[in-house]
Design goal:
With 234 residues, this protein is mostly helical. It has a single domain (4-228), classed as RNA polymerase sigma factor, region 2, helix turn helix motif (Rna Polymerase Sigma Factor, Chain: A). Helices cover 72% and strands 0% of the residues. It has eleven helices and no strands. Helix 5 (81-102) crosses helix 9 (169-176). The longest helix has 29 residues, at 180-208. It is elongated.
């Protein structure tokens, strides 16, 4: 196994993907680890966008990486290596999803939103933040993740590549093997659906803002009545 220092050293040299691919094709496991670490976040997000489940996405990505390792010798550089790998991850994820549907497997809602690396929206809390601020950012992240998960599959994958990974229209189209016009349409529709869903959440939350019932109401009323009728100390 390569040491972390060796991996860091190679990562810092910014080897081109083509060179990494040649090394991996030659059986260089260190180069393969570097390749995985270099593309892990994007490819995980792609798998997560298709499958909407953290564990399933990890499994799909692992199998996809095995396919990459086994077939990278066939990579000829017609497209970017990241695009070639993304197609493999998408295909593996779609196969897994179809199998899951055939078997009637239902993914619990909590697995869609809890503990996600999403990494489908990266953990953005800073250790330097105050606890309240960190909690609010975490809740916002989970809210956005939940609504991204609720997007239709075709829109969701395009949105993740365009908005989260910031791929261009051309790169997204090549990664998903769809026309550029389709990417534009799906991304526009995904953003609209997401805005509508988040707006509804905000409307509901606004109605509940500064809630004034229950314990708070009882406490204030009791305090005021207590001051109007102070206890007899005589």
């Amino acid at each position: 196994m390569p040491t972390s220092a060796e991996v860091t050293a190679i990562l810092s040299t910014e080897l081109a993907d083509g060179e990494l691919a040649r090394c991996v094709a030659g059986g260089d496991e260190l180069a393969f680890e570097v390749l995985m670490r270099k593309h892990n976040r994007r490819l995980y997000r792609v798998a997560r966008a298709v499958l909407r489940d953290d564990a399933e996405a990890e499994d799909a990505l692992q199998l996809a990486y095995l396919r990459v390792f086994q077939s990278i010798g066939s990579y000829r550089g017609e497209s970017r290596l990241s695009t070639w790998m993304t197609r493999i991850v998408v295909n593996e994820s779609l196969m897994r999803m179809r199998k899951r549907r055939r078997e009637g497997i239902v993914i619990p809602l909590e697995s869609m939103t809890g503990g996600s690396d999403m990494a489908t929206i990266e953990d953005i809390e800073s250790s330097a933040e105050l606890p309240d601020a960190a909690a609010m950012r975490g809740q916002t992240r989970l809210l956005i993740e939940r609504h991204i998960d609720a997007l239709p599959e075709a829109f969701r994958t395009v949105f993740v590549l365009r908005a989260l990974e910031e791929l261009s229209v051309e790169e997204t189209a090549a990664s998903l093997d769809i026309p550029e016009a389709t990417v534009r349409t799906r991304f526009f529709r995904a953003r609209g659906l997401l805005r509508e869903a988040l707006a509804r959440e905000v409307d509901v939350a606004t109605g509940d803002a500064f809630a004034f019932d229950g314990a708070r109401c009882d406490r204030i009323v009791s305090t005021v009545l207590g001051r109007i009728h102070p206890p007899d100390t005589t």
